[in-house]
Amino acid sequence: MYFPYLRGKQFELLAIRELSPILDAGKIIPIIEPVKSNIASLKTALEVLQRNQVRCQVVINPAVGDFRTNYTSLDQFIGSMVAGGNSFVIPSFIISNDRDFEEAKKIIERQNYGSSGFSFIHLNKLNNVDGLAAYSSASNCLYHSIQTAHLFAMRRKLGSNVCMLNDYFNKLPRNTEYIGIPFEVFSSDYNYYQQESCIAFADYLTIGKDYSEGGGAAYAIAIHLTFKDSGSEDIQIAHFVSDNNDGPEDPARKFFEALDKLVKFTDRNGIDSLAVRKFKELHHSQAYQGLGIVKKLSIMNHIELIQSLI
Predict the structure, then answer these.
(1) Minimal CA–CA distance to 123: which of 105, 104, 156, 148?
(2) Which of 4, 134, 135, 277 has the highest CB neighbour count under 10 A?
């Protein structure tokens, strides 16, 4: 299985909504870490996933964004969805330290998630791994997603429901720096995760785990597209960068410069996905809809690619 890790920003939620009709629920279980206090878009996304019978792990205690210091309203929202019969929402908890574990247990017991099911996302190794293992085995802990750096230290004590989580996106300070590396290896976890005794793997897609609220106008526009390397087991990532990058002016022109390279590359290599077809529609119509669409389609392509490989 594959757990794509999304933050609850507008275009990330739109990506999973638009993909949901073609998602294989036996292969794909997204993780969403909500970051915006206005949860209307999150609610819509979860309703769409429910209609398409796709389960989703929703983080109750986000580590970044608007809920980082107070997630009471998010806790109540997820609790009401589960209590209201939405069995496709899996309450999930980021566990970075022993205090997080203790707080999660309080919510699990109060909301009765020990029966309905929940999941943990481990960003660090706990001191009390034995206590974590005992609690998980005594309750309905569905998944443990563990950062790869701590995987070997924790997985042997946590049973068979372990997912390996890693960040494979090479995030560079400026988009112009991708000009020198048009292609690079992304990952091959899809081919090896089961050999590592994991039931799933997860990544931060073509965005990366670092979180930011947004930046200023970019001098260069880069479109990131993953694809299967026909000569190996690797998933590669291509970086298509605009040409005129001396200033932040005319982002539409920059977008179409990068998009033209993507269309030529996918045509030449026979690469197809729902997202690639949408990129080509934009190229044909010369309709610039803002840079959020780039992120959305890049995410959609990556999830569809992984689904086709597992």
Answers:
(1) 148
(2) 4
> b/e per residue, 163-191, with b = 16+ CB within 10 A?
bbbbbbbeeeeebeebbeeeeeebbebbe
Which residues constitute the domain of residue 176? 171-185+218-310
Residue 154 pLDDT class (50, 70, 90 cuts): confident
E strands, 46-115, where? 56-59, 89-95
CB atoms within 10 A of CB 307: 18
Query: Which residues lie closer than 8 Å to 149 by C-beta, 6 or more apart?
Result: none
> How high is the pLDDT of residue 190?
95
Residues 241 and 137 in one domain: no
Residue 24 and residue 223 in contact, taking contact as beta carbons nearer than 8 Å: no
Strands (E), the chain: 2-7, 31-33, 56-59, 89-95, 118-122, 141-147, 162-166, 183-187, 200-203, 222-228, 235-241
Reported as a single tens digit per residue, the pLDDT across 293-307 is 999 999 999 999 999
Average pLDDT for 26-32:
98
SS3 readout for 165-229: EECCCCCCCCHHHHHHCCEEEEECHHHHHHHHCCCEEEECCCCCCCCCCCCCCCCCCEEEEEEEC
Do 233 and 152 sit in the same domain of this protein?
Answer: no
